[in-house]
Design goal:
This protein is of the alpha/beta class. It is built from five helices and five strands, in the order H-H-E-E-H-E-H-E-E-H. It has a five-stranded mixed beta sheet. It is elongated.
Length: 181
């Protein structure tokens, strides 16, 4: 800078240089955090058995490759566990609201297996609950969520409204009990 440079101009250049330097430091730090993330390291973190049990749940999508198509339930019940089968739709607000409650229920009850069956055909133009899908017609689904409950020996215990009441009762009782612990 020359001796005749006004002080205000010098001060503005200095501020710009400081902002530039701070930006470079911030970018460097962010890049370092991305490439040196401790969660991505080779060291594994071992969870206690109690924590593993609380974090695990047995919920699976039963028909991910063929939603809305006819489906045989014979292989759905899990031997040794009570199995809750939920017929659901991605377009049902009630099904969406119920999902975290079912997840908490599954975590609270390791003796449960939850199998979700999507009744919606993916190739439909109309984005709504697909009560006319081959799957919905096969099981006479009139509303979702619809449930079937099987015992540990794969026998059907409840379906329809009775099964829905049982699921609601389990959610109220078992999830509330797990929060008290």
């Amino acid at each position: 800078m020359s001796a005749d440079t006004p002080p205000a101009h010098s001060s503005r250049i200095l501020k710009l240089m400081l902002v530039f330097a701070a930006s470079i430091l911030l970018l460097s730090y962010c890049s370092w955090r991305v490439y040196h993330n401790p969660l991505q390291s080779q060291n594994t973190i071992e969870l206690s058995p109690q924590l593993k049990k609380r974090l695990s749940c047995d919920i699976l999508e039963a028909n991910p490759d063929h939603p809305g198509e006819r489906f045989d339930l014979k292989d759905i019940p899990i031997t040794g566990k009570t199995t809750i089968v939920e017929f659901y739709s991605l377009f049902s607000p009630e099904c969406i609201d119920l999902e975290p409650q079912l997840e908490m229920l599954s975590r609270a009850r390791p003796d449960l297996a939850i199998r979700k069956i999507n009744i919606d055909r993916p190739d439909r133009e109309k984005r709504s609950i697909d009560l006319n899908s081959p799957l919905a017609k096969q099981y006479e689904i009139k509303a979702v969520p619809e449930f079937k409950i099987y015992d540990a020996d794969q026998n059907l215990l409840a379906e329809g409204e009775k099964a829905r009441r049982e699921v609601d009762l389990c959610i109220l009782k078992d999830v509330a009990a797990s929060h008290k612990k």
